[in-house]
Amino acid sequence: MFPKLALFSLALAALTSVHGQGVGSYQSETHPKLNWQKCTKGGSCTTVAGSIVLDANWRWVHKTGDYKNCYTGNTWDTTLCKSNKDCASNCALEGADYSKTYGITTSGNSLTMKFVTNNDNGANIGSRVYLLASDTKYQMFTLLNQEFTFDIDVSKLPCGLNGAVYFSQMDADGGMSRFSTNKAGAKYGTGYCDSQCPRDIKFINGEANAEGWTPADNDQNAGLGGAGSCCNEMDIWEANSISTAYTPHPCDGLQQNKCSGTACGGGDNRYASECDPDGCDFNSYRMGDTSFYGPGKKVNSNSKFTIVTQFITDTGTASGSLKEIRRLYVQGGKVIQNSKVNVDGMNPALDSVNDEFCATAKTAFGDTDSFGKHGGLRQIGKSMAKGAVLVLSIWDDHTANMLWLDSSYPTDKDPSTPGVARGTCDTGSGVPADVEGAANGVQVIYSNIKYGDIGSTYTA
Asked: What domain range is 301 assigned to?
């Protein structure tokens, strides 16, 4: 994930003094309410009254007890942030006005996330939120031998955008108990990690990421620090109205871990980290069925639909090993089975992510098998058994313009080469300046989140 981070300069009132990565007191942190359901066999579902929290990377960071920014645009204030520890001691995260500043609203079991929100301080671009079990703890999901279901409306997500739903193996408290200098915790959305070992995170493990920070030359709000934050990632849904994929990304460990420099991977060192950056993706268009998903297609992205993801184990119990990730859709009162593979060298009966699918797809497309190197489905299963945090986001891509999801990628290869064509978007689409400038009304709506026993969360 490479979301654009919107950061603001705000004139704020007196703030609380802290020692470590602290919190301010100008804007109260009130988490928007969001309900979801836990279901059991027989179709019985219990409503959970939960809430969401905004990721810490989107929040205003300022000098403790002062209006002064610690971070402005895409640079740190070096007088406050001479070192990562100094920065954490000197700076505080502020509360969020979810609707006015970030375009995030909830109603019952529905969450709406706008891509661009104009406000008194400029414009917010994209956002990322997490489900909370309480005001200080993330909701942790353990999904082996279970299914996860939600409704989605991507009708207003064009080329170059990604409305993503995924599980990240973050700490339940955002890292507070492991890192004593983290005073903000899950209440303020700290502790993010994913399989890209992202280095654009401003605070990692209770310290700033200011040392070695390089402002991005193509993004006025972001940059890369000297450290990154790695963990297992299960992408349930990465999509816009044109294309979609679901993708497991294993890492070697089973908890969030801080990396440094080239050990974070990326760029020329893409496969140098402890995580699999590519994953094993099932994108129906890339797998040869170009009529399955999109506007007016079998799964019609012009209208709301339901996504069901099932995590099948080898024993049919929660103590087994993950052997298959199965996908179903429900739309217009009908259950729609996932598309079949239509790629030379792959079994045409394949319609889910399993060991055969992943191994043969890597061979057919000539891709590096980083997925297998880092433990494949078995490792993702171990991660899921331990528990992970649900992430919901909307973002654009300053690295590859989202072409890896919805166009032909890499762009220097013939689109007829197996695995290159991933959607119908033009290879010139997805440029952030273009999608941000034409973002009026662009949004994604997530609703009706459910999880529980296989077959319990949906009906035809």
From this structure: 35-58+103-453
Using the structure block, give the residue that is written with the tokens 């298959």: 324
| pLDDT beyond 60 at 65 | yes
The helix/strand/coil state of 85 is helix
Q: Which of 147, 233, 274, 436 is catalytic?
A: 233
Please tell me which residue in 238, 274, 324, 356 is annotated as part of the active site: 238
Question: Is the residue at 293 inside a domain?
Answer: yes
Specify whether 238 is catalytic: yes
User: Collapsing DSSP states into helix, strand and coil, what is residue 329?
Assistant: strand
Q: Is the pLDDT of residue 71 over 80?
A: yes
Nearest partner of 193 among 176, 169, 209, 212, judged by Cα: 169
What does DSSP say about strands 146-153 and 140-141: parallel, antiparallel, or unpaired?
A: unpaired
Q: Does 9 fall in a domain?
A: no
Q: Is the pLDDT of residue 4 over 60?
A: no
Q: What angle do CA 121, 126, 131 make, to 5 degrees?
A: 110
CATH code where residue 44 lies? 2.70.100.10
Is 11's pLDDT higher than 50?
no
Question: Quick one: average pLDDT of 121-129?
Answer: 93
Say how far apart CA 414 and CA 305 lie, in whole Å.
33
Residue 11 falls inside a structural domain? no
pTM of the model: 0.95
Domain assignment of residue 91, yes or no: no
Q: Give the pLDDT of residue 24.
A: 84
Integer distance in angstroms from the first to the last C-alpha of the chain?
A: 33
Pairing of strands 161-168, 233-239: antiparallel
* pLDDT for position 312: 98
Whether 147 is catalytic is: no
**Domain count for the chain:** 1
